Structure formats: C-alpha cells, structure tokens
C-alpha cells in the first residue's frame, strides 16, 4: 500500500453547498478513534462513502458485520442503518464523503439510475487490485487538488470529477474482489447472523424462544452471548432496530403514525409511543415535525460527522 494512492491531509475538509441542498458534497479527511465508536447503527437522508486509508475496521450494515481493509470503498445509500467499528490503538485515517445530487436530469435520468445501482449491491463494498485502485481514486485526488486552488468553476469541476469517480467504480464493478470473510469466533458469527435476521424481520413478532430454536442455541446462552457481542440485550436490539426504521418512515413518508407503529412490529401504539419517547426524548409526532433531517445536517455542518 502506498500513501500516494489517495491524497490525504488530516483535518482537511472540502465543501460544496450545504447539507439539505439538492446538490452538496462534504469530504472529510481525518482520523477516527476507537473511543468515538457509535453505540448503535444510525441512518441519514444522503449518500455516504467511507474509504479507510490504513489499518482495518469493521462496518456493520443492517446488522451484518463486514471487515474492511485500506482502500476498500463502502457505499451507503440513504436510510441504510450502519455504523463503523474502529480498532483500539492508533486512530485509523479515513475519508468520509457525504453527498446528494439531483438524478432527474432530462435525458440523463436513466443513466443516473444505472450509475447509482452500485449503491444497491447486496454487499455495497468494493475492493480493487492496486492497478484499478489507482484509476478509481484518481478523480478523488483531482478533487483534492482542485479544492486547494479554487476558481469560479470550482463547484462545477468538483461535481464533474465526483461523477467521474462514481462512473469509474461502475465501470470496474465486475472486477470487485471483495468477499465477506467469516471472522471472530463461531458464536460471534452466529450472533451477527441473528442481528442481521432481526433487521430483515423486525416487522414480525420476534421472541427469544423462537430465535433460539431457529438458530439452534439455548435461549439463556443466546441472551448472554448476544449482549456480549452487540452490547445490547436481545430485547433492546429489537426495539432499537424497530425505532430506527420507524424514524426513517416518519421522515421519508406520509404514513399515519399508527400505521408506522404496526408496520415496524410494535404490538400496540402505546408501546411504540412509550419506547419512542424513551429512546428519542420526544413523541413520534414531535419528531416528524421538528427533526426532518435537522440532526444529520447539524452533524455535517459541524465538520465532524459522528460515525
């Protein structure tokens, strides 16, 4: 691995427009300490790309654990629950890109739909050979140097190079060599499999007894090991997953709150309301009115997205 593959300056940031605009970019070059790992998975209403520059880390997407290496490219579409777990020791360097862009450009809408299909891959992580990596990262390096010598065409040039970056990933997507590796103990692997199952079936009634039978582990052992691996009790994890998905629906749909509660697997509206208040400090209706992307916009505007 050579540092020149991707230009980097710790603490450097590149901005084009503001979060919430129909087109914006925020490129954050920095380190991330293990002590700042997020407690639970989060989501936002813009796209995110994570590129690790050194060491290794783990990315959890919808409850599934993926090991990432330097220069792996993690693509995250809006409203996808995820978090990164950074290792103990020296903070790894990484580039986090958050962005939005209009895709309904007359004459180009079908092309943009195809371009953004890379974000919909079953495993949206790309790993290339060193030769292809140089080609994929080249537009990002040009963005880095363009930002240091701004001109009247600064924003247009960055947008153009970023589209080129996405096009290059798409062009070489068939050469993606990322394979999900089974890491850790067999019991830890089973707990992440169960977490992933919860994310896929949170709308249904879930019980410790049913899951323990499905995954051939005693209920007592599952409860203890699930807490050890995820940091949450089995019930807490289900509640957090349901609430996060309810938050997405509140922000991104006009569905009735009672319907959202039922669709997210809550037995009653009163249960939903109580747990939502407990985890968010406000009612679902207040959240819908006052939190339309506000927290995520403030997070990006602060210059240190919490990931």
UniProtKB/TrEMBL annotation:
One GO MF term attached to the UniProt entry: DNA-binding transcription factor activity
Regions annotated as coiled coil: none
Top-level taxon: Bacteria
Source organism: Paenibacillus amylolyticus
InterPro entries: Homeodomain-like_sf, HTH-like, HTH_AraC, HTH_AraC-typ_CS, Tscrpt_reg_AraC-type_HTH
Keywords: DNA-binding, Transcription, Transcription regulation
One family name in Pfam for this protein: HTH_18
Domain spans labelled HTH araC/xylS-type: 192-290
Transmembrane in keyword set: no
Protein's name according to its UniProt entry: AraC family transcriptional regulator
SUPFAM superfamilies in the cross-refs: Homeodomain-like, Regulatory protein AraC
Residue segments, region Disordered: 283-307
Entry keyword Transferase: no
Biased composition (Basic and acidic residues): 294-307
């Amino acid at each position: 691995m050579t540092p020149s593959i991707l230009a980097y300056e710790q603490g450097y940031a590149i901005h084009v427009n503001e979060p919430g605009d129909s087109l914006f970019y925020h490129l954050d070059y920095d380190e991330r300490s293990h002590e700042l790992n997020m407690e639970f998975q989060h989501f936002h209403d813009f796209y995110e790309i994570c590129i690790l520059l050194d060491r290794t880390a783990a990315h959890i997407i919808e409850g599934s654990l993926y090991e990432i290496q330097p220069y792996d490219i993690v693509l995250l579409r809006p409203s996808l629950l995820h978090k990164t777990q950074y290792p103990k020791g020296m903070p790894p360097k990484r580039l986090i890109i958050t962005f939005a862009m209009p895709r309904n450009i007359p004459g180009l809408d079908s092309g943009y739909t195809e371009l953004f299909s890379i974000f919909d891959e079953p495993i949206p992580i790309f790993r290339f050979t060193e030769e292809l990596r140089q080609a994929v990262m080249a537009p990002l390096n040009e963005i880095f140097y363009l930002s240091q010598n701004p001109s009247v065409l600064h924003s247009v040039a960055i947008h153009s190079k970023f589209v080129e970056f996405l096009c290059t990933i798409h062009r070489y997507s068939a050469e993606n060599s990322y394979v999900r590796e089974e890491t850790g103990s067999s019991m830890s692997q089973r707990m992440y499999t169960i977490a992933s199952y919860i994310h896929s079936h949170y709308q249904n009634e879930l019980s410790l007894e049913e899951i323990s039978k499905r995954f051939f582990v005693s209920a007592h052992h599952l409860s203890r090991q699930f807490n050890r691996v995820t940091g949450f009790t089995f019930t807490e994890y289900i509640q957090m997953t349901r609430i996060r998905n309810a938050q997405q629906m509140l922000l991104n749909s006009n569905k009735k709150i009672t319907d959202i509660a039922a669709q997210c697997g809550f037995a009653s509206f009163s249960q939903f309301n109580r747990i939502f208040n407990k985890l968010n400090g406000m009612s679902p209706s207040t959240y819908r009115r006052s939190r339309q992307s506000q927290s995520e916009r403030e997070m990006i505007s602060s210059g240190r997205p919490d990931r």
